[in-house]
Design brief:
Blueprint (H helix, E strand, L loop, with lengths): L3 E5 L10 H7 L4 E3 L13 H15 L5 E6 L1 H12 L4 E7 L10 H5 L4 H9 L10 H11 L2 H16 L13 E6 L7 H10 L3 E6 L6 H4 L1 H12 L1
Parallel strand pairs: 1-2, 1-3, 3-4, 4-5, 5-6
Helix pairs in contact: 1-10, 2-3, 5-6
Amino acid sequence: MKQSIILLHGLFGGLSNWKEVVEYFEPLFDVYIPELPIYEKHQADTLEYLIDFLETMIESAGLTNVILVGNSLGGHVAIRYTHRHPHNVDKLVLTGSSGLYENTQVGSYLKRGNYAYIRERVAATFYDPAIATDELVAEVLQVTTNPFKCICAIKAAKSAQRDNVLALLPEILTPTLLIWGSDDQITPPSVAYEFEHHLPNAQLMILPKCGHAPMMEKPEEFNKALNAFLS
């Protein structure tokens, strides 16, 4: 029976963000990429709602000894889940994770429906602006031009900013791999070094010429590092 890997996307991310990771690891692992319910109507704090969602998903599927891989907000959810359920997480992988510091202008970002501005902001996610394809920009515009989704995204961003996980990190003994872009403008490499310093069992890999989503921008290097860690 294959071990389960759960891939968790970020605030403006989607399932397609993990395409090359899924292709690489599907023959080796049981791969799950849940769509985080960021745009569902709920009364709870958004981060708590997302953690509850992950708990329910893992329990319903009967998954044990899982590998959690989270980008940005997805990393934040993975940290919180691992802290609460240490015996159910075999390994933790964080890439551009929130939870300590995020350089985000998300409130003003969402109040601007202007196409050129949104394209510029999406391009800033990456070292190579060419990664910001028309499809990716269109996905973000779908949020910024929908008033309900806008409010949900702002709530999610504020919820993540309020929740600093620094005090929890020394209690997370799970083997952890940090894969970070050297040119991440949203969670700069200094954040990765802080995670590495406070997590008792962490190793860090910095990928050069790479931004906030290494699994999209440097998929070969990302997959190679992840595979070596999981082996």
